[in-house]
Amino acid sequence: MTAPELSRTIKIRQIRNEAETIEANASERLALAQRFGVAAIDSLTAKIALDPDGPRIAAKGSLNARITQTCAISGEDFPVAIDETIELVFVPAKPAIASVGEEIEIELEREELDEIEYEGDSFDLGEAVAQSLALAIDPYAEGPEADATRKKAGLTSDDAPSGPLAEALAALKKG
């Protein structure tokens, strides 16, 4: 297993009442950009307050990133600002259930949806920040030239039919 590109291990017994600041360096940003399929990650900073409650650690804070993304329509790079709130809970890993040939359906409660399991006496806050960034990136982002590229290619929105049939129908409506 390869190490995460942005790893910041937090020992549970060393958590103090200060916000943790995670700032990705140039090589970490380059590796994350490759992992997430974006042209560049120009900056990535997160400030996270950790609040332990026994083995459960609540993590709340903010993630700020400036990335360069490629437009899904024009193929041109454009800047994107990402400002997200992070709310996670780190919980001890549950023991694996061994069953052969049996499907198990697991239902998660709302408060369990942003839980990240950890093993031992520490967890990786950096990888959690990286995953939060991945979720904030729009994989089909459109840059400022998207509409012009569509128009140049003769593509219009689904709302406005085009072509000979559409023109004939428009003429019938006018006449």
Automatic annotation (TrEMBL):
Pfam families noted in UniProt: YceD
Record-linked InterPro entries: YceD
Protein name in UniProt: DUF177 domain-containing protein
UniProt organism field: Parerythrobacter jejuensis
Organism phylogeny: Bacteria, Pseudomonadati, Pseudomonadota, Alphaproteobacteria, Sphingomonadales
